[in-house]
Amino acid sequence: MTKKTPALDLLAAVDDGYAQTKLYGVDENGQIVKFRMRSSVRPGRYGLGAISGTGSVGLYDTEVGPFTVSEDVEAENTQFDGFHLSPMNRVLVHHALIGAGYGGKEVSIIAGLPVADFFIRGFKDEEKVAAKKANLMKSVNPETGAAPIVKDVSIGCQAVAAWVDYALDDEFNERVDIEGAVAIVDIGGRTTDVATVINGASVDHARSGTANIGVLDVYKAVEQAIGVRFKIRDRFPLNTIDNAVRTKKIRVWGKDQDVSELVDEVITEHEGKIAREVERQIGSGAAMNNVVFVGGGSALFSNIAKQFPNGVLLDDPEFANARGLYKYARYQQKD
Q: What is the pLDDT of residue 7?
């Protein structure tokens, strides 16, 4: 029999990344909800109407105008500094909430910020945290369906949240020895975050930081390599390039083409760059109990953990931040 969560408000943890938006939450019956989508969005109306004639698909109105969320349109680059505080980000979060079944329902959410945004000179950046919370509390209006009713917003640090997922099981019991130093390496869409957690109680800022390299750099390089290979300038939707990276095939002029060689070359190049960025923060990792890799990039760079003798790749690393945020929020409610 599935154990139900005690009666609490609906709670959803959202890892709102530059490349993907992941949600980990609970429904009215206490069942765990997982949802993942590409952060594929651009401003404006793009005429993707439902076949049933009920309105535009993925269209949201905001105070700065409409946005369309769909993997079938050419996405705008989310790699800009203000992304996490933008209406574009808010639209993606609300689209994920609706996709996960929270449309029309009251829900509390917890979202995250990268290490470099959450901390400033070793202290929590209260101004940026407050700005992100205020942004997510604002409403968006979907053209079809009901918007979620966001009751409350909490903000955590993404890589530190992944440490919570690494350290605690679903019942909040320690599943590893948390004594000593553990480096969490969160390879995301735009950035690679390193957070070194000491004894489960503090963050070593001298061995933590953010590098501007991630999965979207791989997508961009693969798209450029495909353009060179086939002598084309066409732009491909984000999901097409993602699928090419994962399957090493792409459909060009109606035919499947093998692009495994160029994809492998790009992944190897960027895997090396990310490993060097990690070494700039923590050296060889010899002083760490473990170097733990999480995030969507960790699933893509499947060999990167092997470059460190104490490297660990978590199960289902793409959801580590969202699961950790959820565990942290639920633990706070438990108290």
A: 42
